[in-house]
Specification:
283 residues; 2 domains; hpI Integrase, Chain A; five-stranded mixed sheet; 11 strands; globular
């Protein structure tokens, strides 16, 4: 029998997601707090396996659309039937608007059901939920169905995670015991190892891009100026103007379609090869 999620466990899952990626947290909130089905949020599959090959199929849901988001709710369209308006609290509408940015049409969430399934297990593991391997997105909908009377209170009392409550993998770098779990941690780690990477930071700012540095990797006597943006996961960079950045420094490189002109430095893998440090796995 699959595990039943408690209020505390759902809150921990959402908190960890908020630390890593606001987009993923919003998907979980829509399902757990507002009763959306996963397919309604990200869309259902447009193909199926027939024997040994994939064949196209008509999706039941196309996912939430930017143009359907209003000030107090969003329209949910189906393959057949009249679109249904679902109410949303102003705070969630604001968070969705921030995620959308300058886009004015298309899907709000460019991700598949299978990707959400993968992320649910990843975040459940990091939130230290029991039986995390068995966590599935539909359990968040089951949670909503079982807590509808308490949802308003659950949403109003939800607090962002305190960073110290969630620790990354143990890496035992001199001066840093655990791997970063957010963008600020990535900045800290890069500051520790940038000299070994032969990149010298000249300027860090709160605006975009985050930093400017001199890259001496190709010529130690004559460096090249580079603009750097820090992200926990490289995919979070998508919202930025690519023309204004040369290098993404991240902990995890998960952006498969990253443009070739932008270099990605994944610290998680680079640290293992640096001569001054070693990446240790917990026993």
């Amino acid at each position: 029998m699959p595990p039943t999620l408690s209020i505390d466990q759902v809150n921990r899952l959402v908190r960890v997601a908020e630390e890593k990626n606001k987009r993923d947290a919003l998907v979980f909130k829509l399902i757990a707090w507002y009763g959306f089905k996963l397919g309604e949020v990200v869309g259902t599959p447009s193909r199926r396996m027939d024997g040994k090959k994939w064949v196209p199929m008509e999706p039941t849901h196309h996912g939430l659309k930017i143009q359907d988001l209003g000030e107090d709710g969003i329209l949910v369209s189906r393959k057949s039937g009249i679109p249904e308006k679902r109410p949303l609290k102003p705070k969630l509408v604001h968070e969705l608007r921030e995620l959308i940015g300058d886009r004015d049409q298309g899907k709000i969430f460019e991700m598949s059901e299978s990707r959400v399934l993968q992320l649910a297990k990843e975040y459940a593991r990091e939130a230290r939920l029991p039986d995390w391997k068995r966590i599935r997105p539909h359990m968040l909908q089951d949670f909503y169905d079982g807590h509808q009377a308490d949802i308003t209170r659950i949403i109003s009392t939800f607090l962002p995670a305190e960073p110290e409550h969630y620790l990354g993998q143990r890496i035992d770098l001199p001066g840093l015991t655990y791997a970063p779990t957010n963008e600020q941690g990535v900045v800290f780690v890069f500051g520790m190892v940038c000299h070994d990477l032969q990149i010298i930071v000249e300027h860090i700012q709160t605006g975009y891009p985050d930093a400017e540095a001199i890259d001496y990797r190709h010529d130690r006597s004559r460096g090249v100026r580079r603009k750097i943006e820090f992200e926990f996961r490289s995919s979070s960079f998508k919202k930025h103007d690519q023309a204004q950045c040369d290098i993404i420094v991240c902990w995890e490189h998960d952006w498969k379609d990253c443009p070739k002109r932008i270099e990605v430095i994944e610290l998680k893998s680079r640290i293992a090869g640096l001569r001054a440090f070693s990446l240790k796995r917990p026993v």
